[in-house]
């Protein structure tokens, strides 16, 4: 993995007493931003946490020195350094004077998107989810270069805040042959998105930070014109996107639907349920959980439907390390209150933790674990009536052994709220690698479906 961040060009614009410390710092590659606040010590923020850079207090003269070396601040209180990817944001007081600076270190990284190369070649639209500062902009910058240079596509970048291609009329080399359209005002981003399609015949349009209803509508319009979209938005996971009204249209939109009595009974749900309205603008979603661990939803329509119907979701986890080895595994989880399986995979890498809202489930390991139980499954039920279980087992003609001694159990089932409080049981299950299935609420339909999964 190659990296270029023009770090020296940023240091040259900072006060002299900081320059030497920064040049000698051994963790430059892990530095995210530098904070200069009036009356406080200068601080650097790293991937591992914050650290003071000097004992000296920042003065008005220090802040004035930095601002005079930068380009003019925009209406969004952002400025940049010519031909670099660094971004400097300011904080102002009531007199509109600058009394704080956040110097975000911009990096052009080569090799990161090798983990999703196959997804780029599929020509499907991709949405990248992640919280602020996780590296979404860095990723789409590299995607732009790969699509334009290596796949020879016509790529247009809608660069609203000049973060993708730098604060200059000449774009940074990190985007390769991709073209960049700047946006005069942030609120006009959706117009520039449509203009790019109408005027410049792109095969791919790249948009950073989709956040308003107009931008979502523009993205849907572009997708319907057959142009591949690569976009980013804030959020930790698919659930955040579904529950965010302005952004839910990116995955097709959500609406209430009234089911017939038969259909509601078949699904085991209420008559009024949430359903997806239309086809998603983005066909693939990538959740940036960590800089080196990404969660991939290769079929957004199926994933969204499964989430809304409280079914198990299948997704991929892709991980790449400094030794450039890429690991891909297929996982499954049940996302909500009516979920079935809350915890199965008990390994040293994935410890038991039923207190989480949902936990990841490794399908391959789970199937291997459950196959060993099929001949003689001994169930210990915690907070679920044994008579209720026997009634369900008799209806589906399934042979299970119920035990009152959890030490003899092959698996444990119970209600989440009760299981969370029994630390002794959790610890024993973890040590003996006994899977725990936790139900938010129990019904005959859920239990029958659960039994079909494990038999």
TrEMBL record:
Signal peptide positions are none
| InterPro entries attached to this UniProt entry | AAA+_ATPase, P-loop_NTPase, PTPase_dom, Spore_III_AA_AAA+_ATPase
Kindly state which keywords UniProt assigns to this record, in alphabetical order: ATP-binding, Chloroplast, Nucleotide-binding, Plastid
User: Does the record bear ATP-binding in its keywords?
Assistant: yes
- Residue ranges of domain AAA+ ATPase in the record: 122-278
| Keyword DNA-binding belongs to the record | no
One function term, GO molecular function aspect: ATP binding
Show the Pfam families listed in the entry.
Answer: PTPase (PF25516), Spore_III_AA (PF19568)
Protein name as annotated: AAA+ ATPase domain-containing protein
